Amino acid sequence: MDKSSIHGMWSSRLAFILAATGSAVGLGNIWRFPYMASDNGGGAFVLIYLSCILFAGLPILMAEILLGRNGRTSPVNALTQAAEQSGRSRFWTLPGWMGMVAGVLILSFYSVVAGWTLYYAWLYVLQLFGGAPIADPGATFGALLGDAGLLTFWHAIFMIMTVVVVAFGVEKGLERAVKFLMPALLAMLLVLLGYGATTGNLGQAASFLFVPDFSAISGEVYLRAMGQAFFSLSLGMCAMMTYGAYLPKGISVGRVGLIVALSDTGVALLAGMAIFPIVIQFAIEPSGGGPGMIFTALPLAFDQMGAIFGLVFFALLAVAAWTSSISLLEPTTAFLVERTRLSRKTAAIGMAALTWVVGLVSVLSFNHWSHIRPFGLDLMTLIERIANDLMLPLGGLLIAIFAGWRLSGRISREELADLPDWLYRTWLWVVRVVAPVAVTFVFWQALRPIVRQLMGG
Ligand code: PFF
To answer: What is the pLDDT along the chain (457 residues), one digit of tens a residue?
Structure first.
């Protein structure tokens, strides 16, 4: 007999695919991927990124979903159950605990950046009603970052949007919203791509993104690409495990995992191909774009295309961020509902409030605290690096080892029942060996220069 989760269940396979794709596709694809590629050498970064998705991302995605579905509870409890069923120690709940911390850290800056997109959408609304156009996008963006009050306001608005959905349960509002909004986002990207094609820079953009310059690869590029792969697929912090807990039995984990991974990767590449021609068009170097890249380059294109395009683009980007942020808040909310007497509403509001406060660090990192630069990084970048580049891959590594070596084979085989034997064994081999080796290799590449420095110094 299939038990269901106390938090509710996805109504269909499509509902899960949309929710999980909604979680995966977000600021990571459209805001972060292009500037990460830009800052880390283009093609070489993209090549490592794609390898990480294939050899670590997809198999770990499947592992997370199956562990969630086996437990039907929030990650810590699902991992506790799986460890007990397999006669293993409680140590394996660690990725669940770490994931909740990573979730708070990621949502804290995610909400601030999503706030930027809301603010830009608002600027275009004003422009449509006769307000001033964004004449100097660099200055507009700089002024936004300099204004702690403005940043805090939009950060709060976005956090409220997130908590409203989570408080009311994921199935109701969300299933319907993503069904309509995700295709709209895709359409908008295609329009931008069409515009990019008219600039005549498509070829240049493609070669920047797809022709790897191996001399650009350093330990750091490995680490950034892997962190980006985990971040983009929402992996390593048990968000997908949480969504897996609401997945009805009988739906193929392998197939939905593949669809989610392909859609997420497709959107990232499409975003790159849409954005770089515009960046090049306006004589901005394709390399070294930084976090402000889409906020400073795209308004130049929207100036020619019309304010309505600017509005639609930033509004949809905010929506893509929204369908991701709920998956960042859901794991901790579900955990609190299971372990305490709090109602879902109170749990969600409490966690959102805490995360909002943590987000103020990112807000201040651009203005009042911009002089605080541990390791030469501003505080938001530091939080991003710790969460995305270290915590997510480390969580993913533990999940892969647990699913591959520690989890009872009966459970994984049952959850992947539809896979033919050879495919199941391939998956097992990949989570046992390939993914852990890949993640360890990347960590080692990144640590090597530091170790060498320490040894030499
Ligand atoms: N995958 C989201 C994006 O690419 O924007 C971000 C994200 C969501 C990361 C959920 C982690 C997560 F658990």
So the answer is: 578 898 988 888 998 999 999 999 999 999 999 999 989 989 999 999 999 999 999 999 999 999 999 999 999 999 999 999 999 999 999 999 999 999 999 999 999 999 999 999 999 999 999 989 998 999 999 999 999 999 999 999 999 999 999 988 767 766 777 777 888 888 989 998 999 899 889 999 999 999 998 888 888 899 999 999 999 999 999 999 999 999 999 999 999 999 999 999 999 999 999 999 998 888 677 777 789 999 999 999 999 989 999 999 999 899 999 999 999 999 999 999 999 999 999 999 999 999 999 999 999 999 999 999 999 999 999 999 999 999 999 999 999 999 999 999 999 999 999 999 999 999 999 999 999 999 999 999 888 887 888 887 5
Instruction: State whether the beta carbon of 319 lies less than 6 angstroms from ligand 1.
Output: no
Q: Where are the domains of the chain?
A: 13-454
Q: Topology of 13-454 in CATH?
A: Hydantoin permease (1.10.4160)
Ligand 1 close to Cβ of residue 29 (< 6 A): yes
| Cα–Cα distance, 217 to 377 (Å, whole number) | 21
Q: Which atom of ligand 1 is nearest to the CA of 236?
A: 13
Q: How far is CA 380 from CA 40, 57, 222, 302, 432, in A?
A: 18, 25, 21, 28, 34
Q: To which residue do tokens 């984990």 refer? A: 253
The residues, any chain, with a CB within 8 Å of residue 344's CB and separated by 6 or more, are: 7, 166, 167, 169, 333, 337
CB 311 within 8 A of CB 129: no
For the Cβ of 23 lying below 6 angstroms from any atom of ligand 1, the answer is yes
Contacts of residue 421, defined as CB under 8 A and 6 or more positions apart, other chains included, come to none
**Residues 32-44 as b or e (16 or more Cβ within 10 Å = b):** bbbbbbbbbbbbb
Please enumerate in sequence order all residues whose Cβ is within 8 A of that of 172, keeping only pairs 6 or more positions apart, or say none: none
Atom of ligand 1 nearest to the CA of 264: 4
Residue 237 tokens, joined: 């912090």
Q: Quick one: DSSP state of residue 340?
A: S
pTM of structure: 0.95
Contact 99, 394 (CB under 8 A): no
